[in-house]
Amino acid sequence: MSSNATAVTLHKCAKTFEDGTRALDPVDLAVEGGETVVLLGPSGCGKTTLLRIVAGLENPDKSGEVWFNNDDVTELPIEKRNVGMVFQSYALFPNMTVAENVAYGLRVRKMSKPEIEARVLEMLKMMRITELANRNIDQLSGGQRQRVALARAIAVRPRVLLLDEPLTALDALLRERLRVEIDSLLRSLAITSIYVTHDQAEAMALGDRIVVMSKGKIVQTGSPREIYNNPKNSFVADFIGTVNRIPSAMTDGIDTPKEHDLVFRPEDAEIVEKSSGQFNGKVVNSFFLGDRIRLIVDCGAPEYITIESFQRDVIEEGDEISIRVHQDRFLEIN
């Protein structure tokens, strides 16, 4: 992480609205300078409320504190926190061109005209919208507008960059490309970033750490690898990727506590010689995905299991298969 970037610390930040709705239980969170932290969870879990508290758009309940480095910013409004904010809605100025929108914050900061022109060009190139510089906002697609919003937020080099599902409007290919570009940009500029999403792929691609939230609480915090390989509980395991469960009654011969189901990821299962695996089953569906085959298998458990196989063998609906999972690939969760 960068020693020059702004660290963000939240202490006992809760949020109760005037109608009595508790959107966020008391939360403690420390974001290192230059770190990208992703708040991940389903709709209504409190992640956007938490982001708005960091921004200064919402005040935490009485005991809550927000710190940027050694500065207590709890009472400061958004315009005094020097944060960049990218919303799901674009919040662009319709009476300005693309270039004018990107330049707006720079003009407010009284940068020189050559500096503004150079920074705007840099941002337009990064977002692949150079050719749109002189277009009006109402001439842009939704994806193009979000690119402009991202460029405008990043252009001012904020102390903290806050992003609330900024890629939602983009198609799948564009989202994938922008994930890489945003990640590269944030790391090169060492901007402290907090990113809200419900998309696990975005979280895994962008986050130095992922904060998984549920019902106004932080459920687990860790690196993408830690969250995926060592989920704290069933909620995290189910929300981050796909998991299979085999009831404990079917685990004879497998070294596992009998009070727990066996839980494993689809890619950790291997198809082996018939009757030589830990489970046998019948293929219910087979989907060819180019680099792999996804199999839906009935092995007698209450729910079908999913297998991701990279083997070249043709496996079709109705085939009987045997499945083995290496002992150290079972997930230890309740």
From TrEMBL:
<keyword id="KW-0067">ATP-binding</keyword>
<dbReference type="GO" id="GO:0016887">
    <property type="term" value="F:ATP hydrolysis activity"/>
</dbReference>
<keyword id="KW-0547">Nucleotide-binding</keyword>
<dbReference type="GO" id="GO:0043190">
    <property type="term" value="C:ATP-binding cassette (ABC) transporter complex"/>
</dbReference>
<dbReference type="InterPro" id="IPR017871">
    <property type="entry name" value="ABC_transporter-like_CS"/>
</dbReference>
<dbReference type="InterPro" id="IPR013611">
    <property type="entry name" value="Transp-assoc_OB_typ2"/>
</dbReference>
<protein>
    <submittedName>
        <fullName>ABC transporter ATP-binding protein</fullName>
    </submittedName>
</protein>
<dbReference type="InterPro" id="IPR003593">
    <property type="entry name" value="AAA+_ATPase"/>
</dbReference>
<dbReference type="InterPro" id="IPR050093">
    <property type="entry name" value="ABC_SmlMolc_Importer"/>
</dbReference>
<dbReference type="InterPro" id="IPR008995">
    <property type="entry name" value="Mo/tungstate-bd_C_term_dom"/>
</dbReference>
<feature type="domain" description="ABC transporter">
    <location>
        <begin position="8"/>
        <end position="240"/>
    </location>
</feature>
<dbReference type="Pfam" id="PF00005">
    <property type="entry name" value="ABC_tran"/>
</dbReference>
<dbReference type="Pfam" id="PF08402">
    <property type="entry name" value="TOBE_2"/>
</dbReference>
<dbReference type="InterPro" id="IPR027417">
    <property type="entry name" value="P-loop_NTPase"/>
</dbReference>
<dbReference type="GO" id="GO:0140359">
    <property type="term" value="F:ABC-type transporter activity"/>
</dbReference>
<keyword id="KW-0813">Transport</keyword>
<dbReference type="InterPro" id="IPR003439">
    <property type="entry name" value="ABC_transporter-like_ATP-bd"/>
</dbReference>
<dbReference type="GO" id="GO:0005524">
    <property type="term" value="F:ATP binding"/>
</dbReference>
